Amino acid sequence: MNNLIQRRGEVTEDLVNNDYRILHVLAPLANLVGYSTDLRTMTSGTASFSMELDHYAKLSEEEERKIIQKKTGLL
């Protein structure tokens, strides 16, 4: 779960059963690049991962500035 929080994930539901655990998390798509590989590594290949679009959200001014600077070298 810490890995998801580091990726700006927000846990919205945590379901625990005797045999498994299901997390529902809202996270920016850009921050999930490579997560599937990380999850398999952390769980020795026993976990699975799926995702679907929930909504679009406006970037904060700071996030917008960082992206513009990275893409253009300006600011």
From TrEMBL:
InterPro entries: EFG_III/V, EFG_V, EFG_V-like. Pfam families: EFG_C. One of its GO terms (biological process) is ribosome disassembly. Residues 1-67 form the Elongation factor EFG domain. CDD domains: EFG_mtEFG_C. GO terms for molecular function: GTP binding; GTPase activity. The keyword Hydrolase does not apply. GO terms for cellular component: mitochondrion. It comes from the Eukaryota. Keywords: GTP-binding, Nucleotide-binding, Protein biosynthesis. Gene3D superfamilies: 3.30.70.240. This is Elongation factor EFG domain-containing protein. It comes from Dreissena polymorpha (Zebra mussel).
